C-alpha cells in the first residue's frame, strides 16, 4: 500500500513519470503510481491546509494499488490494459455513479486532470518573474485544468489554500534540486518532455491520449479505447 514518507525531489518524481512509458508505448501503472506518491510527499510538506488535497490523491492512488494487488493485477498492468479490461467487462459507470463508483478509468481520469494542472503550474513557475505570486500561478492553472470539474465548495477551499503558498523562490527551493535558478533550469529541461515527450503525450495530456491502439483498427481494443476517449471527453465525466 502507499508508503508516503517525507522527502521530496521533483527530479525523482519526473523520472518516475518518464519511466511510465513502455517500449510498446503503454503507460505502465506502477511507475505512474510511484510518481504520484512522490507528489503526495510534496503535498504533505505544504501543511494542514493542503491535507484535504493530499488525502484525495492518496485515496485515488490506493484505489489503483488495490487493483494492482488483486487477482486482476495483470489487467491493471498498464492504462491500456485497464481500459480494455474494464470496458469489455462493463466495469465503468458511464451515466451516473452506480455499480462501479471507483473504477480504474474514473480514478485515472481524475489523476490525469491533476497532472495537467501540474504541467501548467510548473511551466508558469518556470517562465514567471521572480516576484510573481505562486497563488496566482496556481489559480490560473487550476482554472484551466481542474476548476470546471469541481463543485463550488471545493473551488473555494482550493482558492483559500493557494493563498497560503510560499513565494516563488521558496517554492523552487522545495523542489530540492538546488538554487531557484538551478530549479528553473531543471524545469526548462523537463518541460519539453512533460509537454510533448514520453509521459506527457500519454500521462499528462488533458484529453488522456492513450496513444496508438494496442491492436488493429476496427478491433475490440480499438473500440474500447474509442469508448474511453468518448467517456473522457464527455460532459458527464464528473459523475
Ligand atoms: C516544487 C513544485 C512541485 C509542485 C508539486 C505539486 C504537487 C502536487 C501535485 C498535484 C496536486 C494536485 C492534486 C489534485 C487532485 C485532484 C483530484 C480531483 O479532482 N479530485 C476531486 C474529484 O474526485 P472525486 O470526488 O470525483 O472522486 C475531488 O473532489 C477534489 C478534492 C480536493 C481538491 C483538489 C484540488 C486540486 C487543486 C490542485 C492544486 C494542488 C496544490 C498544490 C500546491 C502547489
TrEMBL record:
Annotated Glycolipid transfer protein domain residues: 28-176
Localization of this protein: Cell membrane; Cytoplasm, Cytosol; Endosome membrane; Golgi apparatus, trans-Golgi network membrane
Keywords annotated in UniProt: Cell membrane, Cytoplasm, Endosome, Golgi apparatus, Lipid transport, Lipid-binding, Membrane, Nucleus, Transport
Segments forming a coiled coil: none
GO biological process: negative regulation of autophagy; negative regulation of interleukin-1 beta production; negative regulation of NLRP3 inflammasome complex assembly
Top-level taxon of the source organism: Eukaryota
SUPFAM superfamilies referenced in this protein's UniProt entry, alphabetically: Glycolipid transfer protein, GLTP
Recorded GO MF terms: ceramide 1-phosphate binding; ceramide 1-phosphate transfer activity
Pfam families: GLTP
Topology class, membrane: Peripheral membrane protein
A GO term from the CC aspect: plasma membrane
Database matches in Gene3D superfamilies: Glycolipid transfer protein
Catalytic activity: N-(hexadecanoyl)-sphing-4-enine-1-phosphate(in) = N-(hexadecanoyl)-sphing-4-enine-1-phosphate(out); N-(9Z-octadecenoyl)-sphing-4-enine-1-phosphate(in) = N-(9Z-octadecenoyl)-sphing-4-enine-1-phosphate(out)
Family per record: Belongs to the GLTP family.
Designated name of the protein: Ceramide-1-phosphate transfer protein
Native source organism of the sequence: Monodelphis domestica (Gray short-tailed opossum)
Organism phylogeny: Eukaryota, Metazoa, Chordata, Craniata, Vertebrata
Gene: CPTP
